[in-house]
Design a protein that fits this description.
It is built from twelve helices and no strands. The chain is mainly alpha-helical. The chain has two domains: 61 residues; 177 residues, MetI-like (MetI-like fold, Orthogonal Bundle), CATH 1.10.3720. Belongs to the binding-protein-dependent transport system permease family. CysTW subfamily.
């Protein structure tokens, strides 16, 4: 028995004490995660250009910079660009990820190098490989084929890093799908395509939508890889915010940050609800 194991055997903690320690740890975790976000949200209402505590009052001045006609064009343009990239990435990841999930679950792979386990690992690699490595690798590829810095290249990169989320969610429902429903439709004369369109796709719709929502959130919030792929004219909102705070804290950043948090939480909540519906 090693010394650490021996020490743990000597320590006796009652269930009540263990519950208190677990509760305290949980509270500290939530404080660590959410207090900085609450501070940003509070400072977005300050009337001062240099935020301080306590705030001298409450103002919506910085939110006014997000609304025409006196809006910050750089921030708003980046916001709409991020939304557009997120939507296109979610659609691309939804299509590719759903097809990949069908292949991984339904197709019988006989080749040793193209086994289900190998392909599953390949599709999940973007979750395992450090994001900075992915950013540099894809940037090198873009330089070789001459599309670096284009809007298409940013969307393509975001599709790459969001596909795994769709594959995981859709595959989980496909594994639990009752194939007898599809077989019954075919026995009644439905073709393979009609069975997919009228039976399989409606059943999988919640998982596909949930995966696309998660893909949109990851794309919208992504900074590390996008920092390598974007150039002037294709910067996303996180890149623009980073550029603004390098020279000082702009209160309008707090306002747009609060909007992003609320928007991302709403999308994530909707995706989580759809995921729970899948499991039910």
């Amino acid at each position: 028995m090693n010394p650490l194991t021996a020490l743990l055997h000597r320590i006796e903690i009652s269930d009540r004490t263990a519950d208190r320690l677990l509760a305290g740890h949980t509270i500290l975790l939530f404080v660590f995660i959410y207090v900085p976000i609450l501070v940003v949200a509070l400072l977005s209402f300050t009337p001062q250009e240099v935020p301080t505590f306590p705030m001298p009052g409450i103002s919506l001045e910085w939110y006014g910079e997000l609304v025409p006609p006196n809006h910050n064009e750089q921030l708003v343009d980046a916001l709409f660009r991020s939304v557009a990239i997120g939507i296109l990435s979610a659609i691309g990841a939804g299509i590719v990820g759903t097809i990949a999930a069908f292949g991984l679950v339904r197709y019988e792979f006989e080749h040793r190098l193209l086994s289900r386990e190998t392909l599953n690992t390949v599709f999940l690699l973007p979750l395992v490989v450090p994001w900075i490595v992915t950013g540099i690798a894809v940037l090198t590829l873009y330089d070789m084929i001459g599309i670096r810095g284009t809007f298409f290249s940013v969307v393509l990169g975001h599709v790459l890093i969001t596909i795994p989320f769709v594959v995981i969610i859709v595959s989980s429902q496909l594994y639990g799908l009752d194939r007898s429903i599809e077989e019954a439709a075919k026995n009644l004369g439905a073709t393979e395509l009609r069975t997919f369109y009228e039976i399989t796709l409606p059943i999988l719709a919640p998982s596909i939508i949930a995966g696309m929502l998660f893909a949109f959130t990851i794309s919208f919030d992504n900074f590390t890889q996008t920092f390598f792929w974007a150039t002037t004219g294709t910067e996303t909102l996180p890149i623009v915010i980073y550029s603004m705070i390098r020279t000082g804290i702009d209160p309008s950043v707090n306002a747009i940050g609060t909007v992003i948090v609320l928007f991302s939480l709403s999308v994530a909540f909707l995706g989580e609800r759809l995921s729970k519906r899948i499991l039910e």
